[in-house]
């Protein structure tokens, strides 16, 4: 086998990881599970690299924790950990759903959400799920650590503003959904060809006590070079009653605000549009049902 | 190098290895735990799954040092004391083991699931299994047996029950696990890549990378100079004939003046390591003058098309095949309704989960030269010598491998020995020469063993595919619903080399009227050379393609006649006395109507509806029928030889061994051969061993193709054993002083009569009295003679028949198609082993489901888009339907105990059953495979009645002019 790296490091602190990056001067890459990067090297899509820095064993960053309203996910947390975490299932449902459809279970057992976000694909399912929740990421580098909205990290397809030669994505967080809030995710696939979504969409929605949309976030991909937040559709829904009709209108607004691509052997432009029309209202409705459930906890 | 500490199967391990190693490499190469297999190297197939700290991971993309300090469990750890783990036992009981290459991965993934559920205090459900095994592929089983096995092992469900065939015998008809199944569930089973010989080098092949080009020059100087490179060979160094081919020798061993597809071999390298071999390939300079590309069969037929083989007489026409029966014009004149449609089927990939691997060992090789000893498990003790060039390979035709290698080496065939190793799936894709000749040439050149292992990428690029076809078919029926005429024209993409195209497309042609009695038939088929990957054998052998067209037309005719599609088919189905399209009178063993009735009765039990709607989902049933010849047919001599020997086994018991060079690729041949010998010799099944495919120790069983092995090799084993039984009875009669006629062989004894008190002598004693090698019989079996196409008479000596109904769901919002259930009935003549038979049927159905819904090997102007496994999806457990399988037994008088072939039959009509169901659900006729949900949804949206673009198609189906035309007049 042709492998593609010479040194494998498993730092146990963020500082060590950053120092290793600096030591290799651009010749090292941070990996979580490595399930994307290593396969790409294998396929010859990426050049071999001198060193891999495995960020999955940094002390304290291999778990999901609570910090006040925030649910915080360390960079070593795998998709499997996320989909089994009761707090995320309840208060970040769309992230749990979106991580549940990534790859197969073996990949989910070693692949991490941090890796998914840092990879910056336009429709990484975990990314779409977290984006709907209003996710933020913490980046550590030589000059310290900073939090930023995750959508600010996307530069282009597979390209992130995180400086991969100097920085490590250390943690991700989002505000847990509370009373009157719900979220949902759906993606459409085809059974042939590459395992890439035709469309992946996430929704976070808050209802007021009269059943009107108080706040909503909609994420979508692939509808452009980077994961997309459907601001216009979100604005169109705010203050409206959570009805099927309004959800359908929101899907139309979402469609009018993006340029859907046709991609060979994946989907036509028309098909993608149909999927937005069919499933965006469906997940809005699902999120709304969940919002009702959290607002009116059953007897 | 760094110290890696692991606990592997409860044993602490510390080894010094490079930090660049993957876990699979450490397990297989450094620790010798070859039970963990590698299928793709790209995190797609799942067969390399092991548990790290109890969690299933893909060891082939898992850095070994990521597991530093962890607990690793592999298949070898499951039965430390030799007692099988419940999962291993359950996989045996349910026949969830076929070729076995994916078995370790499936079992380890399942163990992770069961252990996880147990610690959560939950019961494992079928849904849990579908989730856990989503990316754990199996190409053989169809997953139903796997699911049942896991449920059993988790403490639910019970051991499998299979209906025994109508049987008054002792062994035939009993469901027993295949011979190597136990070794496959423990990880002990060795496939070619699991063998290591001291001093072994790594070989690689320089591929053309361009679909059509003249070679101006090849420069291997720099590669030869690279340290660590032991040999670089080109066409100039081929000692013998630089061509191979199973029917026509047109395929260069190493290309000299021209390359005709991207996978063509130009040079081969043997080196100390994979890395060095890869660098050497990069250093080989080939200067090409690129030529225009012939990209499909219809374009190839145009008079102005570039020529793929300049020396070939008929342009790009490899073969024009015809069937002519009755008066086609008169037939259509009698028709009340006529359906005339054109269909397209895709090239598809076998995707056996074991990529090709050959090991060449030079004549005179001794492991001592390299300071090593021969791996005791590598070859059987008495055959562990290398006095001639030896090739270890899992291949479907060991004797032809031998002969073709000898021809390229310029030596007599007896100077080459092929030792068949276990095969991780074949399905027709391991019939042609791949690395066999190259490995042998490099072994002799370097004087060292050489392993030529293809990566998944190389496997996808190089070996022959299923023929892409365009089929125009016109079918007519009268008012009473009787077929009056079928006319068809087929274009088959043979690719760059002939391979088995002529044979495959002959089958497509002769079966192009379906399993029906049609008085007037005219079929023309054109096998065309192109610059695509060669096309060759693939389970179904051409019939899969024409069946899709035939059965689609049948449903359309039934609709136009306003007849029930079952009744319409039944009215036309072949039966005893019918005459086939080729003029063969069916004299016996035609169980088609019983198959139809079994399926029809099953689906109509209770409240039956052809179709219904639930919310935005529509459900419908669809039907497909098929028949498939057993054996080569067409006048080809069809022979198999087998030796059956009785010898003393452990504990002074008599055991028998069957030897033949037929191939086991997971279909269950050893179980059939052992059952035949056991039946005749009165031995328990467990007392019969089977040795397959060693050309120095096993006589030729012929190619393992055409669903023929149960019939021909089964007969050879049965008749050899019967003759041996006669000899034993004669000797026993002398011993017991009675007549040989009354002697009965039972339980390792020869008894004077069939009562328990009768005097008897043990077979073991006879062996002791007459000597170890006294009881050995070889039988050369000749199957009944057949006639060439066009001459009437029996083109084949037997046919299998089947009917399948598929229950499909179409999601009206997304166009997604799901197959919920398949009800099938197969006339197999006689079920010799219901357990392995069930596996053949279920696996075939799911393979054909892939043909309908998921699979397309896409080539763009001769360049494969399907370059990696990530771009080719075979059905996973999430696609697998529930399967109900009925066995119909209309015995073939010349088959062993009445059996005929089943290997291909089940994989033929499922696609048409599915598309017929889609039509009934949506009103949209699918004319091209695999079904594209995007196109289907668009058609439903537009109210269109058909879709002609499949997934992967960029252009509409070309127009096909019906009938034979001279070359040059083709359009």
Helix and strand arrangement:
The complex is a heterodimer of chains A (299) and B (971).
Chain A: E1 7-9, H1 14-24, E2 28-31, H2 37-42, E3 51-54, E4 64-67, E5 70-74, H3 79-84, H4 86-91, H5 93-100, H6 105-110, H7 113-119, H8 125-132, E6 136-141, E7 144-149, E8 154-156, E9 159-160, E10 168-175, E11 181-188, E12 199-207, E13 213-221, E14 228-229, H9 231-237, H10 244-256, H11 269-295
Parallel strand pairs in A: 1-3, 2-3
Antiparallel strand pairs in A: 4-5, 5-10, 6-7, 6-10, 8-9, 11-12, 12-13, 13-14
Helix pairs in contact in A: 5-8, 9-10, 10-11
Chain B: E1 2-8, E2 11-17, H1 23-30, E3 49-52, E4 55-58, E5 71-73, H2 86-93, H3 103-120, H4 126-132, H5 144-153, H6 181-186, E6 201-207, E7 213-219, H7 221-225, E8 229-233, E9 243-244, E10 251-252, E11 258-259, E12 265-271, H8 274-283, E13 285-290, H9 297-300, E14 317-325, H10 328-333, E15 337-345, E16 357-361, E17 389-393, H11 398-409, E18 416-420, H12 436-446, E19 450-453, H13 456-462, E20 469-477, E21 483-495, H14 501-510, E22 520-529, H15 543-561, H16 565-572, H17 592-603, E23 611-614, E24 617-630, E25 639-648, E26 654-660, H18 669-681, E27 688-692, H19 709-736, E28 744-746, E29 749-751, E30 760-762, H20 763-770, E31 776-782, E32 798-811, E33 817-827, H21 834-853, E34 859-860, E35 863-864, E36 882-888, H22 910-922, E37 925-926, H23 933-942, E38 946-947
Parallel strand pairs in B: 1-5, 6-19, 17-18, 21-22, 26-27, 33-36, 37-38
Antiparallel strand pairs in B: 1-2, 3-4, 3-5, 6-12, 7-11, 7-13, 8-12, 9-10, 14-22, 15-20, 16-17, 16-19, 20-21, 23-24, 24-32, 25-26, 25-31, 28-29, 29-30, 32-33, 34-35
């Amino acid at each position: 086998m042709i492998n593609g790296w010479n040194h494998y490091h498993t730092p146990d602190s963020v500082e060590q990881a950053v120092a290793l990056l600096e030591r290799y001067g651009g010749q090292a890459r941070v990996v979580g599970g490595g399930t994307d990067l290593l396969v790409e090297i294998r396929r010859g899509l990426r050049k071999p690299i001198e060193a891999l820095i495995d960020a999955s064993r940094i002390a304290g960053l291999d778990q999901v924790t609570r910090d006040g309203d925030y649910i915080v996910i360390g960079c070593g947390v795998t998709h499997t950990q996320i989909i089994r975490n009761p707090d995320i299932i309840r208060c970040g449902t769309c992230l749990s759903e979106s991580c549940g459809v990534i790859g197969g279970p073996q990949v989910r057992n070693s692949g991490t959400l941090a890796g998914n976000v840092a990879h910056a694909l336009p429709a990484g399912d975990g990314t779409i799920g977290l984006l709907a929740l209003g996710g933020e990421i913490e980046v550590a580098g030589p000059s310290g650590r900073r939090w930023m909205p995750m959508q600010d990290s996307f530069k282009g397809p597979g390209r992130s503003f995180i400086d991969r030669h100097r920085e490590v994505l250390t943690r991700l967080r989002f505000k847990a959904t509370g009373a009157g809030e719900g979220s949902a995710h759906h993606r459409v696939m085809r059974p042939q060809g590459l395992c890439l979504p035709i469309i992946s969409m996430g929704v976070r929605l808050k209802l007021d006590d009269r059943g009107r949309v108080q706040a909503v976030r909609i994420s979508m991909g692939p509808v452009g070079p980077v994961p997309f937040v459907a601001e216009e559709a979100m604005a169109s829904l705010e203050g409206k009653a959570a009805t099927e009709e309004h959800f359908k209108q929101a899907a139309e607004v979402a469609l009018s605000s993006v340029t859907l691509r046709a991609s060979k052997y994946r989907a036509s432009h028309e098909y993608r549009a149909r999927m937005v029309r069919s499933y965006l209202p469906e997940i809005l409705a699902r999120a709304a049902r969940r919002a009702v459930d959290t607002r009116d906890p059953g007897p | 190098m760094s110290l890696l500490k692991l606990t592997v199967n409860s044993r602490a391990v510390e080894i010094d290895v490079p930090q660049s190693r993957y876990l699979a490499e450490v397990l297989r190469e450094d620790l010798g735990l070859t039970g963990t297999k590698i299928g793709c190297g790209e995190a797609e197939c799942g067969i390399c799954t092991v548990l790290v700290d109890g969690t299933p991971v893909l060891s082939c993309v898992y850095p070994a040092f990521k597991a530093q300090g962890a607990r690793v469990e592999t298949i070898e750890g499951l039965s430390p004391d030799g007692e099988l783990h419940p999962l291993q036992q359950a996989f045996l009981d349910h026949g969830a083991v076929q070729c076995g290459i994916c078995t370790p991965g499936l079992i380890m993934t399942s163990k992770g699931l069961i252990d996880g559920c147990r610690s959560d205090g939950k019961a494992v459900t079928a849904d849990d299994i579908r989730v856990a095994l989503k990316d754990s592929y199996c190409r053989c089983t169809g997953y139903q047996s796997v699911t049942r096995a896991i449920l059993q092992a988790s403490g639910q469900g019970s051991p499998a029950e299979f209906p025994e065939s109508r049987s008054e015998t002792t062994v035939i008809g009993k469901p027993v696990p295949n011979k190597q199944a136990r070794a496959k569930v423990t990880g002990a089973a060795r496939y070619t890549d699991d063998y290591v010989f001291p001093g072994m080098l790594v070989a690689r092949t320089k591929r053309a990378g361009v679909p059509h080009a003249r070679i101006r020059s090849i420069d291997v100087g720099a590669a030869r100079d690279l340290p660590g490179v032991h040999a670089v060979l080109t066409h100039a160094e081929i000692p013998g004939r630089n061509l191979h081919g199973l029917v026509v020798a047109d395929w260069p061993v190493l290309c000299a003046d021209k390359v005709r597809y991207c996978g063509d071999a130009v040079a081969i390298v043997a080196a100390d390591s994979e890395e060095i071999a890869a660098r050497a390939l990069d250093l080989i300079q080939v200067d090409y003058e690129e030529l225009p590309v012939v990209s499909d069969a219809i374009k190839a037929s145009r008079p102005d098309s570039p020529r793929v083989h300049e020396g070939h007489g008929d342009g790009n026409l490899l073969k024009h095949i015809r069937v002519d029966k009755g008066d086609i014009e008169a037939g259509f004149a009698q028709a009340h309704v006529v359906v005339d449609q054109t269909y397209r089927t895709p090239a598809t990939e076998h995707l056996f989960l074991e990529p090709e691997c050959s090991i060449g060992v030079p004549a005179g090789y001794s492991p001592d030269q390299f300071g090593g000893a021969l791996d005791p498990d590598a070859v059987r003790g008495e055959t562990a010598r290398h006095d001639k060039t030896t090739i270890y390979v899992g291949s479907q035709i060991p004797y032809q491998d031998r002969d073709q290698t000898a021809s390229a080496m310029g030596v007599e065939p007896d100077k080459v020995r092929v030792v068949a190793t276990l095969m991780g799936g074949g399905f027709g894709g391991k019939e042609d020469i791949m690395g066999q000749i190259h490995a042998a040439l490099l072994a002799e050149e370097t004087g060292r063993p050489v392993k030529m292992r293809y990566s998944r990428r190389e496997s996808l690029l190089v070996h022959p595919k299923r023929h892409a076809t365009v089929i125009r078919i016109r079918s007519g029926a009268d008012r009473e619903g009787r077929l009056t005429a079928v006319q068809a024209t087929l274009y088959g993409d043979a690719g760059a080399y002939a391979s088995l195209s002529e044979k495959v497309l002959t089958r497509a042609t002769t079966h192009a009227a379906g399993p029906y009695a049609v008085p007037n038939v005219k079929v023309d088929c054109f096998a065309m050379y192109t610059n695509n990957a060669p096309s060759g054998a693939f389970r179904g052998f051409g019939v899969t393609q024409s069946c899709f067209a035939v059965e689609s037309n049948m449903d359309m005719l039934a609709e136009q006649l306003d007849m029930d599609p079952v009744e319409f088919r039944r009215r036309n189905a072949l039966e005893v006395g019918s005459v086939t399209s080729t003029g063969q009178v069916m004299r016996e063993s035609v169980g088609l109507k019983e198959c139809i009735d079994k399926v029809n009765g099953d689906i109509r039990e209770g409240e039956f509806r052809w179709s219904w709607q639930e919310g935005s989902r529509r459900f419908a049933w669809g039907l497909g029928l098929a028949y498939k010849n057993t054996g080569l047919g067409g006048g080809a001599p069809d022979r198999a030889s087998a030796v059956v020997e009785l010898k003393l086994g452990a504990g002074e018991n008599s055991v028998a061994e069957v030897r033949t060079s037929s191939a086991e690729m997971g279909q269950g041949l050893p179980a059939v051969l052992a059952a035949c010998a056991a039946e005749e010799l009165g031995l328990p099944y467990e007392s019969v061993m089977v040795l397959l495919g060693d050309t120095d120790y096993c006589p030729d069983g012929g190619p393992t193709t055409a669903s023929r092995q149960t019939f021909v090799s089964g007969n050879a084993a049965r008749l050899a054993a019967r003759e041996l039984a006669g000899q034993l009875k004669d000797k026993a009669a002398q011993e017991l002083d009675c007549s040989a006629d009354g002697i009965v062989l039972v339980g390792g004894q020869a008894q004077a009569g069939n009562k328990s008190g009768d005097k008897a002598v043990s077979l073991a004693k006879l062996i002791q009295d007459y000597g170890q090698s006294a009881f050995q019989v070889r039988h050369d079996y000749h199957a009944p003679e057949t006639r060439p196409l066009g001459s009437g008479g029996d083109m084949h000596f037997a046919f299998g028949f089947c009917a399948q109904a598929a229950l499909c769901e179409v999601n009206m919002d997304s166009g997604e198609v799901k197959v919920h259930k398949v009800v099938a009935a197969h006339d197999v003549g006689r079920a010799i082993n219901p357990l392995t038979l069930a596996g053949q049927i279920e696996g075939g159905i799911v393979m054909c489901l892939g043909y309908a819904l998921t699979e397309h090997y896409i080539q763009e102007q001769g360049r494969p888009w399907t370059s990696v496994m990530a771009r080719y999806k075979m059905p996973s457990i999430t696609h697998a339907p529930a399967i109900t399988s009925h066995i119909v037994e209309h015995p073939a008088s010349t088959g062993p105990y009445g059996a005929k072939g089943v290997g291909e039959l089940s994989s033929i009509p499922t696609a048409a059953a599915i598309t017929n169901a889609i039509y009934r659900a949506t009103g949209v006729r699918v004319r091209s495979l695999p079904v594209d949900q995007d196109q289907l949804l668009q058609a439903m949206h537009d109210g269109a009645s058909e879709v002609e673009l499949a997934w992967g198609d960029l252009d509409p189906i070309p127009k096909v002019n019906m009938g034979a035309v001279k070359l040059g007049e083709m359009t």
